[in-house]
Give the backbone structure.
Amino acid sequence: MSAAETLVAVQDIDLLIEEASDRDHLREARRCGLALPTTAVASLQAERDRLTVGIDRRWLELYERCRARYGRGLTAVRDRTCLGCQTRLPTSSAPPAGIALLQACESCGRLLLWV
């Protein structure tokens, strides 16, 4: 799994942990019978820790900073536009087709996920 794919999985886990820890969301999930057991959050955290071991520290720190600032560590790029800050990116910044490369947006600093 590439670093970009690993960070996508880490972001998904972070969002699940965040939802499971949100009191309003948890109360609504319990009312519907969909609440996660408390052990599920611990196992999600363990999986996150396992995944982050293989990521270059530089990318992980940038992901954590972006997540703290914007709520998400990754943002999509569509038609050479960063969907986080709506800045048009130069053609030269696009990775080759079929290759997932990590790079930061020149404008907002978010990690880019080209789709």
